[in-house]
Amino acid sequence: MDAKLLFIHALSPLHAGTGQGVGAIDLPIAREKATNLPYLPGSSLKGVLRDACTDGTTRKEVFGPETTHAADYAGSVHFTDQRLLFMPIRSLSGTFAWVTSPLVLRRFSRDVALAQGADFPANVPDVTPSDGCLVTNATNLIGNDGKVTLEDIPLTPARSAEMDAWAQKFVAVLFPQSSEWKDVFTARLCLVHDEIFGFLVETATEVVARIALDDEVKTVKQGALWYEESLPAESILSGLVVASPVRAEAHTVFKTVDDIIANPLQLGGHATVGRGLCSLHMVS
């Protein structure tokens, strides 16, 4: 199996929805059943990249035939679900933090082991609820009280050389041409306990109320009020791009994907209201 790591950096709120809701949120985002962590379905990503491929022959060889001939042969590229890697969380100091957890990094490390060209630290730092959180030595998240306060949760920070090593690897992929953003990411990287991370990704998503207006009187239509959930801007997800040489060789598959993601793409729903503008990066 030929596979490469793919990163998705949301430049605007990202709505990868389920189409229906059972609670207070009418249009929730997709979440894993076991962990409740948000993700972008691989099928959604593949559809966007397929539409962005302008060469008809390459599109069929790499992404497979049109839907009407789907049974003829399989496509040569597969995308895993893109799982949340870093969640932007409001911070009392530093404006916001890019937050992750040991479980998330361990699952990411499992993908690293399958991918070609990926070079990330082998050791995943651990943290317990009593430990608070781990930050880099260049952090700007620590307040005057010596705490890192995420939303309304005060945590006792510990500066970590291991976090420095992780930050160095991530910025090389996410911000290859911007030293400024490399510093911004490093200063805001934060590792919290899995339970705290689970609470944050449940409560710190972006939920907005939407309405529809009557065309004639310009007032809200009867019953046309709904709430929709999105991952906030600056969320970072990751997953795998897998090449399966059915009609196209692996190098052709990866080059095609790399060419398509050279410019930002719109992922998920509600593009006309600014949702889903994303920057994508594949580890060569």
Could you describe the 3D structure shown?
The protein is an alpha+beta fold. The protein is 27% helix and 28% strand. The chain contains seven helices and 15 strands. The longest helix is centred in the middle third of the chain and has 14 residues.
How many separate structural domains? Answer: 1
Indicate the radius of gyration in whole angstroms: 20 Å
N-to-C series of helices and strands: EEHHEEEHEEEEHHEHEEEHEE
Low-confidence stretches: none
Provide the residue-averaged pLDDT. 92
What is the number of beta strands? 15
Largest sheet features: 11 strands, mixed
Specify the number of helices.
7
Principal-axes shape call: globular
Helix content: 25-40%
Approximate strand percentage: 25-35%
Distance between the termini: 16 Å
Task: State the main characteristics.
15 strands; globular; two-stranded antiparallel sheet; 284 residues
Outline of the structure:
This protein is of the alpha+beta class.
SSE topology sketch:
Elements (H helix, E strand, L loop, with lengths): L1 E9 L28 E2 L1 H11 L3 H8 L13 E3 L2 E9 L5 E5 L1 H13 L18 E3 L12 E3 L2 E3 L1 E3 L1 H14 L4 H10 E4 L1 H10 L2 E8 L6 E11 L5 E8 L6 H11 L4 E2 L10 E6 L2
Parallel strand pairs: 5-10, 6-9
Antiparallel strand pairs: 1-13, 1-15, 2-4, 3-13, 4-5, 4-13, 6-10, 7-8, 11-12, 14-15
Helix pairs in contact: 4-5
